[in-house]
Amino acid sequence: MTQHPAIEIDLPASLREALAGYDWQRQTIGASGAGVFRLEASGKPTLFLKTEETGQFAELPDEVARLRWLGSQGIPCPAVLAFEAHGGHNWLLMSAVAGHDLVTQEMAPDRAIAIMADALRRLHALDAAACPFDHSLGPRIALAKARADAGEVDEDDFDDERLGQSAQQVFEELLARRPASETLVVTHGDASMPNFMADGGRFTGFIDCSRLGVADLHQDLALACWSIHVNLGEEWIAPFLALYGLPQADTAKLSYYQLLDEFF
């Protein structure tokens, strides 16, 4: 592991003191827009630090609120140790969740999809009325438009069927295909395999929770299915949906929420 002095120089004074002696390792798994670092030191707990530029579309303040709420519901996730805005950046220091994500570690596909299905069932069973974060289609589509208008959507990262289109063209498709109804539950919002942690073959927590909120359950199933397709193979999607308890998931909604994800 190596130190990253440029990051350390920009740290708020309180974090610089707290993290003295730690080695830093940049994390590259996942698609988070934040810089993520694993911090280790002999005799001290492993920590994670995330940083991003402040601004209209910053997500770390959202993640702080959601981690605190999610932890209060008994769902395992990182504990927020410190959060500061300093030098034009947000800084979030968290505890580490035991184990490794479902992409990094070697695990049999049947076990990985079982962990995902069980974790999502548990999350979706929370009382949606008690969740303060509204991620239903109205506000999410409005945010998608704001991101597109501000040039925040990476058109070069669109899925194959939309490559070459503009964000505005894809947004028009998003409006045209909007589902008529929503089955609202507490969703993770980015339920891809890198955001499920496991240790010893058992689920240990969710990470990257900045998009957690009340949304249609297909929000999570759509991104889980896409991630399974990419990381394990399409043949594991049907078994995953069966284990979750929705073998006849609405394919139009699965496709729609994958389309919505193009904006985030």
Automatic annotation (TrEMBL):
Coiled coil: none
Superkingdom assignment: Bacteria
Signal peptide annotation: none
Its EC number(s): 2.7.1.95
SUPFAM superfamilies attached to this UniProt entry: Protein kinase-like (PK-like)
Swiss-Prot/TrEMBL catalytic activity: kanamycin A + ATP = kanamycin 3'-phosphate + ADP + H(+)
UniProt GO MF annotations: ATP binding; kanamycin kinase activity; metal ion binding
CDD domains recorded: APH
Aminoglycoside phosphotransferase domain segment(s): 30-253
List of residues binding Mg(2+): N195, D208
GO BP annotations, alphabetical order: response to antibiotic
Keywords for the protein's UniProt record, in alphabetical order: Antibiotic resistance, ATP-binding, Kinase, Magnesium, Metal-binding, Nucleotide-binding, Transferase
Name of a matching Pfam family: APH
Active site positions, chain numbering: D190
Family (UniProt): Belongs to the aminoglycoside phosphotransferase family.
Protein name: Aminoglycoside 3'-phosphotransferase
Organism: Aminobacter aganoensis
Source species taxonomy: Bacteria, Pseudomonadati, Pseudomonadota, Alphaproteobacteria, Hyphomicrobiales
